[in-house]
Each structure stands twice: as structure tokens, then as C-alpha cells.
Amino acid sequence: MAMILVSDVIRTRFPTLISDFDELDGFVRAYEQRFVGRFVPADDPRDPTLSIEEKMRLLLHSALARARLLVWAVVYCINGDLSPGCYLATRAHFEMTGVLAYILRDLRKWRSGALEIVALLRIWS
């Protein structure tokens, strides 16, 4: 799948924002580098359930995929002069950032022993 980047038409229309557009294009490229297209859990025939690490990795991969699509939506809306869509996609991206921050906070609590595994799974499963 081809990356969607800020168009030359928009760059010409808003020459004072070229450095911002370059930064946004850099974010799009970074998402493409980090994106994991397929999650493959460890193959353990004795225990087919996902481990806590695998569950969290799957949650993080899913969040990254949603964030990636939201950044694409922002660029698409910029290119199409769709201000309301750009606003909504940007807001949703901020919300995804909040989800990732909470996941990180809870994982750190769990690793330090301040959060029981049952509570962690109840929150994020």
C-alpha cells in the first residue's frame, strides 16, 4: 500500500507551512517503519492462551494500526481541504495517544508489583 503524503498542490498553496508538512510526512514514514502487519503469538501446544506480554503486544500493535490510519486520515483531509475531518482525525489521534499512555502506565505498575495481573487483565482485556 502506498503512503499518503501531503500533496504538492497543498505545499504550493501554503508555502509558509512546508516545514510542518515535511514533519507530518516524516511521521507518516515513521508509522510505516514501525507498523507490524501481522501478529504471531508464540506457538506453545501446552498452553494455547496468550501470555500477558502477548496480550499487551497485540493491544499495542492494534493501537499503532489505528494511529497509523488516523494520521493517514489527517493527511487525506489536508489534501482534500476537509477541515472538519482533519479536526476529528486529529482529536481521535490524541485519544489514541492517551490510550497508549495508560497502557504504559499500567504495564509499569504491573512490572513493579503495584498492580496485580488480574487487575491488569480486567482493565485491558
Task: Give a structural overview.
With 125 residues, the protein is mainly alpha-helical. Helix content is 71%, strand content 0%. The protein has five helices and no strands. The longest helix is centred in the C-terminal third of the chain and has 30 residues, at 83-112.
- How far apart the termini lie comes to 30 Å
Shape: elongated
- SSE succession: HHHHH
Kindly state the number of beta strands: 0
Helical percentage: over 70%
The percent range for strand residues is under 5%
Mean pLDDT: 87
Largest sheet: number of strands, sense, barrel closure: none
Determine the oligomeric state from the structure: single chain
Radius of gyration computed on alpha carbons: 18 Å
| Tally of contiguous helical segments | 5
Class from secondary-structure proportions: mainly alpha
**Uncertain segments of ≥5 residues (pLDDT<50)?**
none
